From TrEMBL:
Keywords: Cell shape, Cell wall biogenesis/degradation, Peptidoglycan synthesis, Signal, Transferase. Pathway: Cell wall biogenesis; peptidoglycan biosynthesis. This is L,D-TPase catalytic domain-containing protein. Residues 33-102 are annotated as: Disordered. InterPro entries: LD-transpeptidase (IPR050979), LD_TPept_cat_dom (IPR005490), PGBD-like_sf (IPR036365), PGBDSf (IPR036366), Transpep_catalytic_dom (IPR038063). PANTHER family: EXPORTED PROTEIN (PTHR30582:SF33), L,D-TRANSPEPTIDASE (PTHR30582). The active site is at H245 (proton donor/acceptor), C261 (nucleophile). Residues 50-75 have a biased composition (Polar residues). SUPFAM superfamilies: L,D-transpeptidase catalytic domain-like, PGBD-like. The lineage of its organism: Bacteria, Bacillati, Actinomycetota, Actinomycetes, Micromonosporales. Pfam families: YkuD. Residues 174-285 form the L,D-TPase catalytic domain. Residues 1-25 form the signal peptide.
Length: 291
């Protein structure tokens, strides 16, 4: 009887020991009986960038010692947002009409001459100034007629504004007046100007147009020049082979000149032709510079 009791106690003790060992070997994180013991990190899983041990080229740094540069990235900005654009200037009143180097002088001369519009003498181009200068350039055959107060426009305006019509002693008769110094032509009758001063180009060096008092001897609407083989429109001869006629070249080319004749723009040659007749008095004064 005592032997049976001893064996029962030994058997109960063995059961208690086995249950305790099995309980400690179980993984409390396992989701079922028979879970395997987890291995160390890095051995049972492939190392990732987050869990891999740092290499010597990537020393470990504490977040408090060096804040991450990518923790709070700056928002990207589009080229349109970063591009600096300047406001477009408002078009000026004289847009498309360049200002020349003789702006103030031309404004002054055209104001003195009158008849070309209202100009403001301030040396600054405006829409009104541009229109007036263009009108002047068209009237006197200046090319291009862009409204720019350049050298030719300045020269023509200055010569016309400086012309003193009273210097021509016309008397009561119709008289064609030629100012060689200023290279201008006009017509008078009875002390009154019947054709205002306009531009001309007279004889070049070696062929200077002589000053003096003459009269129209012959007229021809289309005269042929034998020595130079060229037609001379609206011809009015007054001194040998010298006479008034429409120019056959650009009048404002100052590097050349006539062989003594008085060259005129088309509209002026026509007007002088309409006014004159055989016997009309011609007065030539001054001397063309350089001749």
């Amino acid at each position: 009887m005592q032997r049976v009791r001893f064996l029962a106690r030994v058997t109960a003790l063995a059961v208690v020991v086995l249950v305790g060992v099995g309980a400690c070997a179980l993984d409390p994180q396992a989701d079922g009986a028979g879970g395997s013991t987890p291995g160390p990190v890095g051995l049972t899983e492939g190392a990732s960038g987050a869990s891999a041990s740092p290499t010597p080229e990537q020393p470990v740094t504490s977040p408090s010692a060096q804040p991450s540069r990518t923790a709070s990235p700056k928002p990207s900005r589009s080229p349109e947002a970063t591009k600096t654009t300047k406001p477009k200037p408002k078009p000026s009143a004289s847009a498309g009409c360049p200002q020349g180097e003789h702006q103030r002088a031309v404004e002054t001369y055209l104001t003195r001459l009158g008849g070309f519009g209202t100009l403001t003498v301030d040396g600054e181009q405006s829409a009104a100034d541009c229109a007036a200068i263009k009108k002047f350039q068209v009237r006197y055959g200046i090319s291009p007629s862009s409204g720019r107060a350049g050298p030719t426009t300045y020269d023509v305006a200055k010569r016309l504004a400086a012309t003193d019509t009273a210097r021509c002693k016309a008397g009561s008769r119709l008289t064609f007046c030629v100012d060689l110094t200023r290279q201008t032509v006009w017509a008078m009758r009875g002390g009154e100007v019947v054709m205002g001063p306009t531009v001309t180009r007279t004889g070049m060096s070696g062929y200077a147009t002589p000053a003096g008092t003459y009269s129209v001897g012959r007229k021809n609407p289309r005269e042929w020049s034998n020595p130079y083989e060229v037609w001379l429109p609206y011809w009015q001869q007054f001194n040998g082979g010298i006479g008034f006629h429409e120019t056959t070249t650009y009048l404002h080319n100052g590097a050349i000149g006539s062989h003594g004749c008085v060259n005129l723009l088309h509209r002026d040659a026509v007007r002088l032709w309409e006014l004159g007749s055989v016997g009309t008095r011609v007065v030539v004064i001054g001397r063309r510079p350089g001749t």
